[in-house]
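Bug: token stream looks shifted between consecutive jobs. Job 1:
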Amino acid sequence: MGPPQLKEFVSPPECPVFEPSREEFSDPFAYINKIRAIAEKTGICKVRPPPEWQPPFACDVDRLQFTPRIQRLNELEAQTRVKLNFLDQIAKFWELQGCTLKIPHVERKILDLYLLNRLVNEEGGFDAVCRERRWSRISVQMGFAPGKAIGSHLRAHYERILYPYKLFKTGANLLKATLTNDTKDKEYTPHDLPQRQSVQPQETCSIARRAKRMRAEVRPPEPLSTLLKPVPQEPHQVSDVPHASVDQYMCLVCGCGTAEDRLLLCDGCDDSYHTFCLIPPLHDVPKGDWRCPKCLAQECGKPPVAFGFEQASRNYNLRTFGDMADSFKSDYFNMPVHMVPTELVEKEFWRLVSTIEEDVTVEYGADIASKEFGSGFPVKNGQVEVSGDDETYLTSGWNLNNMPVLDASVLTHVTADICGMKLPWLYVGMCFSSFCWHIEDHWSYSINYLHWGEPKTWYGAPGSAATQLEGVMKKLAPELFESQPDLLHQLVTIMNPNTLMNNGVELIPFGCAGEFVITFPRAYHSGFNQGFNFAEAVNFCTMDWMPIGRQCVDHYRQLSRYCVFSHDEMVCNMAAKADHMEVELASAVQKEMAVMIQEEEELRGKGVSRSQQVDYELLPDEERQCLKCRTTCYLSGITCPCSPGKLVCLHHAQDLCSCPPSGYTLQCKFTLATLYPMMAAVKHRAESFKNWVASVQDILETKANKKRGLEELRSLVEQAEAGAYPKTDLQRQLRALTLDAEKCASMAQQLLNGKRQTRYRSGGGRTQSQNELTVEELRSFVTQLDGLPCVIRQAPLLKDLLTRVDDFRQQSERLLSDEAPSAAGLQELLDVSLGLDVELPQLPLLRERLEQARWLEGAQRASGRPDSLCLDTMRRLIDQGVGLAPHGSVERAMARLQELLTVSEQWEERALSLMEARPFHSMETLEDALQEVENIPAFLPNCMQLKEVVLKAKDWLQEVEALQVGGRIPVLDSLSELVVRAEDIPVWLDPLTRLEALLADVQTWKESAAKTFLVKNSSLSLLEVLTPRCDVGAGSQKSRSKKSKEASPGSRRDSAKLDSLSEVERALLESKDSASAMTTLEDVRQSEMEVLLALRAANESKLLSAADGSEELSVCLCHKGPSGGMLQCELCRDVFHSDCVTTASELEQDQAWLCPLCQRSRKPPLDRVLPLLASLQRIRVRLPEGDALRFLIERTVRWQHRVQMASPVRVSPLCVRVLRVWLGSHANPPPPLVPVTGLGTELEELMGEGFLLQVTLPETDQLYRYLFHKLAIPPPPSPASSTQEPPEQQQHHSRKGSPKRTKRRKDSTDSHPRDRVKKSRKKKSKSGKEKSPETLPSDPLASDSEDEEEDYSLCAAPWCREPGGDEVNWVQCDGTCNQWFHQVCVGVSAAQAEKDDYICIKCFLMKV
């Protein structure tokens, strides 16, 4: 049975696809060698470059012009072409018979005449089939359904169309020679292959390539006699018809020219034949051209023409070809080119190549030389400039211009530039254009890169299936191989992959775009283009190809096929560079040279005696090809003088001529003597590698007692690197062994040095590294060191380390078995582990037990110090304990801590609630709680605070009780402090309410006193107003104090002077009782009087100095000069501008005016002040304001008594005169007279102290009015007056005629301290009371009692202080008055009275 009909194409499984990384892609041959084991199984593979590898397209598009090949698809397929050749022969046979061949239809299908003819021949021929009635069987074999009487139709068609041709071929007689056709039959148009093959393709490269694959090799035609068999003829009787002696046309059969109407003239040779002389005879004259039997036998007996592609008649460039290709595809599939599925194109392609009914023609721009038009890859000095970023592609190994000539490619030793093999070929494809089944020249590798465009569909078979594929194709299309034995080398024949697979051939298809396709040696491949694209391909050979290449040359010799290059020449070129050759390549070259020299030895010794050296490499390939097998000669060739220009190889010396071998000449490139040293050099290079291999193997097989050192292994590795030895498994094994040994040595050294890990002491150990050795690994490591074929010097030390590790393990087990190991012991053991740089399984448990031991010790220490065991400590310990591994001791300690924490927290909350309770708890409640807390062994802040609160409360109550001991009157500050302290004591204190009420009464009293004394919006405090002044006058406290010191240096007391209110207040607070407070205030009063007197004197002196014009004056609050109306203060005697101060409008002329600095309070009447003192006594609380009020009242009473005892003194006339002169010089018009200015000391001090009193007394106003009216100074005379009255008259006028003034004014006042020289000498000293020699005149204030007047006159000082005691010291004035004074009243000490003279103030003024 014939093969089944192929229906729909089924694509084979895909081939392997490799995606190298960037590093792997950097070396193409290394990567190809890496994938060869996998890819060789399929013969073809695809390599997808990394995404970033995108070379620019460097071909000159405008310059590229090419003429494509024309491909008729159904002529490409082998079986289809056989059918077409057969039909062409049948059609020609009938055409020569004057008939047209029409192929009949059977069952609405065109009848396969070729298959019908083959099946009939296989069944024994037409007669046998008819005789045995096998037509039904043949119809089934042809695929028709049985039972439809198809066999009779097949018989009729065979008998009508094929049987006459069969008879003609055998030379048998035919019954008839006419061809009748049915009107439904399809007329067959011959393909006329010989006519189309008459034009051969142009050779685009000057170098021979691929055995002229497009040149048909036609064998010489056989003689006609062998094709035409003699036809037996029956004896022919010559007719009796008379004929002319010479006929113009004579029948070549009968030799007569009669019956000219029945003579046929052959349209081929012009011979004549009678229709009735032909065999078989013709009844009628044919209408068309007719060929005689001789011409018919000659035409039908012509040998078949070798099939090849014809060239198109049009040249294309890329643009025009692309337009044509896209237009064809879109029109054929009736859709845009990019939308046509690749599967649809594939199935349609194989349908078209398998049918004889459709003739589809495409064009293919194949085998375009890149040397002429430029490569698609960038090349140096190319026609297209390359940018800086793309310069790496110039030298890339995957650049197809570089790959064939890389060092790893043996083609680099082929000197000629072979187009398509060393120089890339370009391919411009369109839809359905195909490349037929073929293997590469010399069975080399090939690599194809699709630059752009639509993909290619490839089919490949591994090299191991090459013979099988060739056998299947020869079996299925033997007719093609009979005429073309090297048909598969011509790239003109394809066969359906499904057909090959059905016959057991393994095929691998795939499609690719922008990727590399690599074919391996002798791997058949074919395919077609899916559409318009541009590809580039080249060959390369690696050293593993060399034996295959030699087999290919032998194969070519059998086929008489041209070689592209000389294999022997390439091997010799490589041998010439043996010193620089890679060792692996040298080994391969050595094997090649051994085979080559052995063959030369055998063939050269066959009787040829003469030799001649010839440089074959200088000859063209055509001149050094073997005449018989067309092999390119290089090492040797045979010539004979009888046949000049002819050359044969040593294998075909007998085919040169008939001369004996002794007459031949051996033309050789090298003598055998020359070849041997070449092979020796290669062998030495290769054997150096073998010696190295032997050394390595010796090391690997060395026993334990004969181990080598690690340095020797390293030297072998270095030798392999220096000698560029092949990276074989042995070298990889040596490297791995050396690397392992070095790692072992390094690891051993690190283990010994203890540097493999980063250690820490906080946890009592070290971090566990990922590559840390376990104990078993260490043990295995030591065993591994013993098993290494080399010596590691650290091995003994590692054994010692293993011993120490075993000791550590024993100690760890002993320690861990203890219920409560000490932290020190655990830490010590962990410290030992620091020197053991291996993974110790006991370490985690040891660390856990260490943490537990440390925690337990910390908990015990904390429990042993209850004073520092706070809640945070307990919580911290519990939190730490939670993170520990479970253990009985830890859990028990945790339970105790938790219980203690719970109790402590409860008492802390209770203590806090006791302190924050409102109302406060009693002392008894808090003390009871504290008794319970005493039993808790922990530091509880709230409980401690509660304890402190109770202690503070007890102290507070004790202090309150102490204040009431002995009936003492408590001080206000003490009470305030107690109340303030009680606010911070959260305990119910019974006395607190009483103290707060007492303070409230004091505060009420102070407010009442402030309302009584203080002026509205006053800046002075109540204490400032009630106590004697420390700052008298308009200046600052510091300046006044300084002035007072300068004015009266002799008035200083022995006691510390109180210069500020704060000091006075502090002294009052520090006083033990009222008496000491009164003493303190008395000292302040005396200081006040001294400072006041000094200030008054200074201000008066300033005014007098300004009156003399000796210095400028600065007065008032504004510190400016006198101007306009001026007011003089009766207390400080300073003057002020009337605009700068405020005066009461109701102030009368005889009323004293005080400046704002001296007017400190309201000066309430005494009757308003006394109730305040009475209410304070009822409160029974001492406060500074109360002491000050008591002293103020006592001072007021004393002053009243002194006023009652005092007598006024007249003013000194000199003093009045001086003042009047000053006033007269500054007043214009003259101001009113100034009141008392030169009073006596007693009255001056008395009047000043009255003004200082902060109580309004009638005595003050009375004394002032008296002095004002008595001592008033009359205004100075007018300048127009020519006479002056006596002073007494002036004084009389001043008293009688002075108008009443509400205010006393001065134009200006300026003062400097007056120089008072108090020098007194004590003339007499008396004790007791003694009357003065003179008596003071009476005044309105004097008492009616004479006794009192006498008592008052005892001391002449107006400010007599009436000293008391057993002994009173007196001093007498040494001036003119001889009056007596108390020493204390005039400020003279006993020592001064004894040493110096004393002059009273009146005598001093009179003297001045």
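Job 2, same session, no restart:
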Amino acid sequence: MRDMNVARLTFKDVPLFEGIMQDIFPNVEVPTLDYEMLEGAISAEMRLVGLQPVKGALHKVIQTYETKCDFTTNPVSSFDNGLPFDFDSGTALDSNPAFVFDFDMGDLQNSRHSSILLGDTNTAKTVSWKILAATLSRLHKQKLPGFENVQLYPMNPKALTLGELYGEYNLATGEWKDGVLSSIMRNTCQDESPDQKWIIFDGPVDAVWIENLNSVMDDNKLLTLVNSERIAMPAQVSLLLETLDLAVASPATVSRNGMVYSDYKDLGWWPFVNSWLDTIKELDYREMLRRNFLTILTPILELKRLQLTEGHGVKGQELTGVRSMCRLLTPLPAPGPPASDQDDIEGFVKMRFMFAVIQVLCPASQEIEFYPSSLRSIWQSSLRSSIIVYHFTPANVSRVLSITSPATLDETSRRKFDNWVREHEGIFPLKDTVYDYYVDERLRQFRPWEDQLPEHWRYNPASGFHMILVPTAEFLRVQLIAIEMLKCGHSVLVGGPTGTGKTCLIQGTLASLDMTQYSTQVINMSAQTTSENVQDIIEARLEKRTKGNYVPAGGKKMIAFLDDINMPARDEYGSQPPLELLRLWYDHGYWFDRQKQWRKNVKPRVQGMVLAGVAGSPGGARSPLPARLLSCFHAFYLTTPTQTQLNNIFGTMLNQHLQEFDEETKTVGETILMQIAKKRLKGLLRSNKDYQNTRPRFLRLWVHECFRVFYDRLTEDKDRDWFVAHVGDMLGKHFDLTFHALCPSKTPPLFGHFLNPFEVYEDILDMAALRKYIVNQLDEYNGSPGVVKMDLVLFKDAIEHICRIVRVISQQRGNVLCVGIGGSGRQSLTRLASYICEYNSFQVVVTKTYGVKEFREDLKGLYTSCGVDAKKTTFIFSDTQIVEQSFTEIINNLLSSGEITNLYKPDEFEDVKQGLEKPMKAANVMQTNEAVNLFLIERVRAHLHIVLCFSPIGDEFRNRIRQYPALINSTTTDWFLEWPREALLEVAYKFLEGVELLASITGEPIKKEPNREDILRGSTASIMSLIHSSVGRYCVKMWQELRRTNYVTPTNYLELVSGYKEMLQNKRAEVALQANKLRNGLGKVEETTLLVATMSAELEVAKEQVAEYTEQCVQYMGVINAQQRNADEQQRNVAARSKKTMEEEVQCKKLADAAMKDLASAMPALEEAVQALDALNKKDITEVKSYAKPPQKVEMVLEAVLILLGHEPTWAEAKRQLADQYFLDKLRDFDKDNISDKTLKKIATYTSKADFDPEIVGTVSLAAKSLCLWVRAIEKYGKVYKSVKSS
């Protein structure tokens, strides 16, 4: 009972369980198994890998062994009291009844092919199974019976999808794709060697993937796949799960597994510290550190646990901080001998130790609120990407960042810790706080961080604003440690709220490294990032060395920078697959090929890959980092900068910029530092001493930048009114001015560079000139070839939006987020603004088949245009073009890092490389693949400006902003709000131009009163604007009362105006048509009246004629009756004759049928004769013709032929006819139907002769025979035809 339950209990519950057992079984001494040999082997293995074989660790390894392995192999064991015990009988060998107990070890064995190691991070769960496996393998090598070698197959099931884990069918092709687990199970189960195979599931347990293993965990030990394949698990294969908790596991899963719970209190942090101290070779230095751990670290950790508060997002386990502190102390060598008697080595070691404690376990933090909570997020966003790093020369310090110090404590905790340290340790100077000092290794004393800063630093105005790097002391507290950790192969994580410079800190740290030894890979995480995305991005920078082994390209050490590492969305059960993939790599040094299911070993840490991450504070789309992943990092925490820090950062740059201005303007600059932010500073640095060299002008610029940075982000009138009032209060408080005095037009000033011939950023006071310029630019744009013409109404708001967009995209890496409902002019005004800046405009064209592949192809062309051809381009992208969510992921990467992974194929990349050869030579950059890629990205970011046109309607916009932080952090927001009344009137006037409101439907000119039509047009426009505005107000009221949303967009207003014009035109056409119909009807009525009068007169005349014709008809009727009688008589006679004729016709038909029968009888002979003629050829005719004196029979035949042809029957004539080439054709075409009786009689004189027979004639000449046949046939046909014709 004890062995089955103690392993599952926490540290606090073990004494309670033992007390209960003692109460149930009083006076019973509970025996314990003697594992002396096993414990010795475990201790040896732990020492071999530098671990401490403490009692708690040994117990957990043995409990894992008891839960995992087979005990029936050693039926006889002994207890700690030295008495042997027989497992078969369940009795001690001395028959002491106090040691008799009864249980079936076989049942215990059957349940142990699946076990779970459960517990918090840093509780040695991984160590337990690794040491156990190594111990069993060691005992097997020592030839001890009952022990086998152990093969390990670790994997993280949450780093893969369910299909990639178990296998799935390809829905498109129907092919089966194997899974990682199914492949491992198949291979291990088919291996018949006696080695133990442990399949390790090192990751979170959920109710999906684990439930598919229930049939493997129970007595069936059978894995059934989707393709109906069944894999039986033999005895040498077993499962082991290592997880943080079982919060979502089902009871069925829990009941099928053996369980071992690891509690941090069983171990604590001392075993790790002792292992680390063992690595220090100098014994004196080791003992000094050990005393410091005992006397300093122990009370500090207790103080931190009870009284101090850590920052959100990087709250780690206690041991994680201790490990980070040891990492920080590791590179420091043991102190050398003292230079003088006054040197205190013990004190110097304590300085180092306290510095490590302060910087790692209890670093500083502050949280200050500058503005009301409604504007706090805007303030934080304006600080993001603040001026960050700076290069200077002191050793080990290459860049400094304008952020707050690393922090895991809030301000109250900071003060408590500072007071506690000063009360217990007197080694710090009295000035400032303990956070403001570092240890000078040469002087062996604390020195302020300010000493590390360069003197008289100046920024380069010619460099891009994103490249301006400001030195601050606060950055040194992070960067020095981060650089050292990365060089030593330890991963670094920076957490903190938005706007504190986390990303810039890491970027500056990476930029300070030697690029010949290090390469970087930026991975911008978002809510849609998957583990496969992360794996593909990293593998794009790896190269294969041997089978399954990958290293960073170029032999460098690669640092994978994971921006917004806690952004990936959690699944239904709370895990984040991309982060689980990273932890799999960090713990085991590999991940799996998703297509071929084998390991891909990625060389980790010192000589391979190391991670650097940035995590925002949890909330919104961001989640707290898993504790197990957080333990892999050396963590820092940053908070919002203080006002003093902001003054140092921005004042350094602004004061340098204002050096050439007059003293009054310099005073203004010093005052406004209190209210400055990064994006406002960018505008102030565009000031020119020739244009803003007076106090009012410079203040107008400051007001303009305030409105652009803050005011443009506000959407509600009450917030905007508050902001205007607040600006007025600040002007009155610091400058004794009012907003209306500074801006007499009661509107904020407007600045731009495009009206100035020298492109100076100046105050635009002449709005008429500004409107005229933009109208001219619009006309030029519409006249450009290949563009779609835009018919825009440039009212005041539209002009201001154009100026805002131009202001942003004219700056380096300036991107805009235009937020407004459809029809508000976002895309049209962006095109015009891009044209004003002389940029190309680019938009994708979405079709029904448009997908990620087509989108990447379009972006490939965009990259080539901007990066290779160096064409400045504005990429306009609308939310209506987001066909797939991966589009937003790509846009997020474009905004944050400018990189799209695997955009070019190898051959295409070679073309890019060739195109960038000259620019890279000019920039003195070596053409390696990595350098080309980075150079291309920099050129793209320098020439590409992204303008996003999104609609705030619905949840999509809010979700995208939360899930893809770069959409806000890397853009300047411009809200396209509801059109004001003036804009509505101006649009209506524009659309009503050319409409004749007083036109006549008859086309006749009407007398127009002066200005009457203009008054009518103004009234119409006013009514339209009133209708639109009132509908908008009632939509708001409907939302407030009914919580139902209805949107009235500018498109609706344009449809109202155009609909009015169309309806007016249609109604006019309809009325004109009705009027024309009426006019035509009246004309027809008049015409009909005239016709009726004429017809009445004609009717009287017709009546007289009718009477006369009636009398004549009576007379004619008598004549007609007489004629009718004669006609009837004639009809009877005709009928009699017709009857007789029909009888004669019957007789004639009979005769005709007989004649036709006779004629048909003659046709065969005729056809035979014709065939005979066809058989003749030229040679036969020549033979007959060659006779000088022909035979009598031949001559007789030819005479008959000549008679039929109507020629003289002589031999001379016969020869002439035979010489005719058409002779035979004449015979074939002979007119046999018109042979005269005379000719028939002459022919009869020949045919009646006895020798005029074809057979007889044929004995003389074959040609004569054919002619004889023809003559006889013609004669017969002629006679028959004559007979038929006569009948």
